Amino acid sequence: MARTVRGARVLITGAASGMGRAYAERAVAEGAASVALWDRDGIGLARLVDELAPVAGRRTELRTDVVELGEMGAIAKHAQQVRKQLGGPDVLINNAGIVRGNRYFWETDNGDDTRATMRVNALAPMYVTREFLPGMIADAYREKRIVNIASAAGTLGNPRMAVYAASKAALIGWSDSLRVELEQADHTNVKVTTVTPSYISTGMFAGATGPVLAPVLEPDYVVDRVWRAMLRGEPLLELPGTVRLSRALRALLPTRVFDAVVGEGLGVYRSMQGFTGRR
Questions:
Q1: 1, 29, 193, 246: which could join 143 in a potential S-S bond, CB 3.0 to 4.6 Å?
Q2: What does the DSSP 8-state code read for residue 210?
Q3: Could you give all domains of the chain from N- to C-terminal order, each with its CATH number?
C-alpha cells in the first residue's frame, strides 16, 4: 500500500473518542477519499465531524453512523448504507471496545458485563468484517487493510478483567486465523494486522497502573505505530516490546513461577486494582 491512505475509503469503529478519534484525524489529514465513523455516541460523532470538516473540505467525504455494535442486525443495516453511499472500505479499523469494572468475575453481571463485553469486543469485529470482506476480496487489484485492535490482556490472564481478557483473546485468535486464511486462499490484496497494546492513556483505563517494564502508552505514539504497521501490512504489532517478552516467558516458565515473577513481581496482576475507567 502507499505511504498514506490518500484516496482510500476508511471505516473506523469506536470513532467518537480516544484512539478511534485519533485514527479518524490521521485518515482525514492524509487525504482519504472518505471516512465512515461508527460509534454509539451520536453527540461525540457530531462533535468530531465539526472538528474534522475544515480539514476534510471537499477532499474527504465524512459519514457518521450511530451503531450499537453489540447488535448484528444494526451492523448489517449500517454496512449496507455505507456500501451504497461510499462503497466498501479499503481500510477497516475495528477499534471499538469496552471494559467493565474492576471486580472479580463472580462479582460481575452476566448481562451487563459478560454478554456486553463479548459482543462488542469479540463478536462485533467479526460481524463488521464479514459484512465488508467479500467486497474487499473481490476488488483484487486494490490493496486492502483490516486492523483489529486487541490487547495485551488477551495474551495472559489478569485479575479483575477476566471477561475483557477473554474477549481480547478471542479477537486475537480470530484475527490471526483470518490473516492465515486470506494468505492460504491467495487473497493477498487483503492484509490483516492484529494489535496487542498494553494500557493507553485515553481515559478508558483510568486508574490502572502500568506494570514494571510496560508503562502506560501515549496515544500519539500508538496511533503512529499502528498506522505504519497497517500501511505495511504487518501481521502483528505488540506494544510495548515487553508484551512479546511476557508472551515468551508465559510459554517458557512453569505457571507458578510466571505468576510469582511476572504476575506479582512485575505488578501485572495488581495493575487493575485502582481502575476507575471513564467517569
A1: 1
A2: P
A3: 9-270 (3.40.50.720)
